[in-house]
Design goal:
MetI-like fold; globular; 366 residues; 15 helices; 2 domains; mainly alpha
Length: 366
């Protein structure tokens, strides 16, 4: 097993590098980069914007008068009429005075030491931004994943055992609704019903905690925290439990029909012993082993709209805003971290296979 894990860890390096290369190359062709956005701000706010550019550098850049505007063409849209020196200064600030290959090599060299640089537009390091937004995303991802598993696995097992019964039919209708309607629509419905939309105002609609949370007692902090998380987590659970429930049911149905189950019953084993002593381990292998990947998926990709609807400032919203504003340090820094975590969690998922079923030996594969 140790040799297998080592091989997988070594494969992380070229995989991560390839993902970063592809995304960096794609971004080079995307219009509306940070230089163009700053030029657009300059065109709209003149002197104040240029002063913001040169802040802390000991000199003030000023937008030129119409008489001094350069008549030459610029590589950036909207740069006509601006002094080329200002455009060059903007490029230098954002690091675009270097060729793309040199910028990529410098970026990856810094990423090896987890130095992701500073945000173009927030004047903070990327690491600080990630650490600041992490509690919101971890809260959503962790509680949603746990609740989805705690609901879906027992429900899926019961649906498999009672396949075709009234219970199975009734719960299938609930599962179908959860499968067909996206989580963000449930979130909007919950806001309308319970967060002051049109009916009741039982739950808050902004933030992870209330003002003055630090001064509350320990018990009051816990209550306030879950009071804020109730609606977002409910929306994500409703939108995410259906697929896992169906997967659990189908896995159990597949195992229940196999020969070893019939043999166990023929030997006089109780139904509980057959179900949880024999079927459960084999049926749950794929589901339990996929827990790390499911958590990463919910943590980094499943909560964007939920964060927007409930005004939760997490990693999903951070990445979305970075993409809109072309904040490349935040974009590539979060991409690097999320990809690295995802690749590591895939290895953790393989290890979980051996924990659930020790008979699996990856090191024996050729």
């Amino acid at each position: 097993m140790g040799a297998y894990i080592l091989r997988r860890l070594l494969l992380v390096i070229p995989t991560l590098f390839g993902i970063m290369v592809i995304n960096f190359a794609v971004i080079q062709f995307a219009p509306g980069g940070p230089v163009e956005q700053m030029i657009a701000e300059l065109r709209g706010t003149a002197v104040s914007a240029t002063e913001r550019i040169s802040g802390g550098q000991g000199e003030t850049l000023r937008a030129p008068d119409s008489g001094s505007a350069s008549s030459g063409e610029s590589a950036y849209r909207g740069a006509r009429g601006l002094d080329p020196a200002i455009v060059k200064e903007i490029e230098r600030m954002f690091g675009f005075d270097k060729p793309p290959l040199e910028r990529f090599v410098d970026m990856m060299g810094n990423y090896l030491t987890f130095d992701f640089g500073r945000s173009f537009f927030r004047d903070r390091t990327v690491v600080e931004l990630i650490l600041e937004k992490m509690p919101v995303s971890i809260s959503l991802g962790l509680w949603t994943t746990l609740l989805v598993y705690l609901i879906s696995i027992p429900l899926g097992v019961q649906k498999a055992v009672r396949d075709g019964s009234r219970f199975d039919v009734a719960t299938s209708a609930v599962v179908l609704i959860g499968y067909a309607i996206p989580g963000f629509l449930f979130a909007i419905l919950l806001v309308v019903l319970f967060a002051g939309g049109s009916f009741l105002q039982w739950f808050p609609l902004r933030g992870l905690t209330s003002p003055g949370w630090a001064e509350m007692s320990f018990g009051a902090k816990i209550i306030d925290y879950f009071w804020h998380m109730a609606l977002p987590i409910t929306a994500m659970v409703i939108g995410g439990f259906a697929s896992l429930t169906l997967l659990t049911k189908n896995s159990f149905l597949d195992e229940i029909g196999k020969q070893y189950v019939m043999t166990a019953r023929a030997k006089g084993a109780t139904e509980s012993r057959v179900l949880y002593g024999h079927v459960f381990r084999n049926a749950m292998l794929l589901i339990i082993a996929g827990f790390p990947s499911a958590f990463i998926g919910i943590l980094f990709t499943g909560a964007l709209l939920i964060e927007i609807i409930f005004s939760l400032d997490g990693l999903g919203l951070l990445g979305f805003e970075a993409a809109i504003r072309r904040d490349y340090p935040v974009m590539f820094g979060t991409l690097y971290m999320f990809t690295l975590l995802g690749l590591v969690m895939q290895i953790v998922g393989d290890i979980m296979y051996t924990v659930v079923d020790p008979r699996i030996d990856f090191s024996a594969r050729r």
